[in-house]
């Protein structure tokens, strides 16, 4: 049985939106790229911010795209930051996050242990965007590293799956059979993660297995925009558990129209990340105008 043309068209658009749009870094961002300090400086120590911060990029990105400018900002604020590209294939190393979630989770787990060991820090913090936000929830729950983690910050994570702005609904036109065929297509083109974090995806089902997502000793902040166009409906990003701080950017900056990709570069989001890392959720800051849509 051939896939319906509408499904193939939707999948093509999906890959264009999620992978190619990551390359569309705002022009103003390029002015700051040369300010990066040493990448993964294991000699870095901070009295004000003793926890090293690991940043996890989103689907289709790398450590030097997506959260790279937030990393520069955090460095400028005295944080010791670390990042990696996970889930990429050797033949195509410029696009990360494509491998199965469990494969990427194993990479992230190993990196957390490496940062913890080499910095000799008591605890490590995680900040993730999109798929990276999902992994910031998934890895502590399933990979045994929760005891060495402290603050978890998930920016626009597809916690309960994403319809990819409704495009993923095309996969259900033909029922479960079509769903299975789309899974095969996604696996063939090398993006198992795309299927696994869709609504009804295997990684989403495992994360939401009825057991606590946030592990003992960890604190979680979820940051989301009401105008996010890829993790939809937007409230599906939130983790409804006691002690979790679920935030909309617009609760603090009502005029910010920031969308999914823009959340990685939005200074209002950066300030909310700092508030989470510093356990100062009520700290006020001057709002800026984010990038609408992607």
Question: Could you explain how this protein is built, in words?
Answer:
- Helix 4 crosses helix 5.
- With 294 residues, the protein is α/β, with parallel strands linked by helices.
- The two termini are 35 Å apart.
- Helix content is 32%, strand content 10%.
- It contains nine helices and six strands, in the order ααβαβαβαβαααββα.
- It has a six-stranded parallel sheet, with helices on both faces.
- Gyration radius, in Å: 18 Å
Q: What percent of residues are in strands? A: 5-15%
Mean residue pLDDT? 84
N-to-C SSE string, H for helix and E for strand = HHEHEHEHEHHHEEH
Shape: globular
What class do helices, strands and sheet pairing give? alpha/beta
Taking the sheet with the most strands, its summary is:
6 strands, parallel
Strands ordered across the widest β-sheet = 2-1-3-4-5-6
Helix content: 25-40%
Low-confidence stretches: 1-33
**E-strand count:** 6
The total of helices stands at 9
Distance between the termini: 35 Å
Task: Using brief descriptors, characterize the structure shown.
294 residues, 6-stranded parallel β-sheet, 10% strand, disordered N terminus
SSE layout:
Elements: H1 5-18, H2 27-30, E1 53-56, H3 68-76, E2 81-83, H4 101-119, E3 124-129, H5 131-142, E4 149-155, H6 176-188, H7 192-196, H8 202-207, E5 219-224, E6 245-248, H9 267-277
Parallel strand pairs: 1-2, 1-3, 3-4, 4-5, 5-6
Quick overview:
With 294 residues, the chain is α/β, with parallel strands linked by helices.
């Amino acid at each position: 049985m051939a896939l319906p043309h509408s499904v193939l068209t939707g999948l093509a658009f999906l890959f264009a939106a999620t992978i190619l749009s990551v390359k569309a870094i705002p022009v103003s961002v390029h002015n700051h790229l040369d300010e990066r300090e040493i990448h993964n400086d294991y000699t870095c120590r901070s009295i004000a911010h003793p926890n090293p911060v690991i940043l996890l990029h989103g689907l289709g990105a790398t450590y030097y795209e997506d959260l790279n400018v937030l990393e520069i900002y955090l460095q400028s604020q005295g944080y010791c930051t670390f990042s990696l590209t996970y889930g990429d294939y050797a033949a195509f190393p410029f696009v990360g996050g494509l491998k199965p979630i469990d494969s990427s989770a194993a990479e992230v787990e190993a990196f957390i242990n490496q940062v913890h060991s080499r910095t000799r820090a008591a605890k490590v913090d995680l900040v993730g965007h999109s798929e990276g936000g999902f992994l910031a929830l998934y890895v502590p729950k399933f990979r045994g590293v929760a005891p060495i983690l402290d603050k978890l910050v998930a920016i626009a994570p597809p916690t309960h799956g994403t319809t990819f702005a409704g495009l993923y609904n095309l996969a259900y036109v033909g029922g479960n059979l079509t769903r299975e065929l789309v899974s095969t297509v996604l696996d063939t083109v090398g993006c198992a993660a795309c299927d696994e974090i869709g609504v009804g995806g295997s990684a989403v089902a495992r994360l939401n297995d009825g057991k606590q997502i946030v592990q003992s000793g960890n604190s979680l902040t979820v940051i989301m925009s009401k105008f996010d166009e890829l993790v939809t409906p937007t409230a599906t990003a939130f983790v409804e558990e006691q002690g979790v701080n679920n935030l909309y950017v617009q609760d603090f900056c009502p005029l910010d129209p920031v969308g999914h990709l823009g959340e990685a570069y939005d200074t209002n989001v950066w300030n909310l990340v700092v508030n989470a890392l510093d356990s100062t959720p009520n700290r006020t800051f001057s709002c800026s105008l984010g990038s609408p849509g992607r």
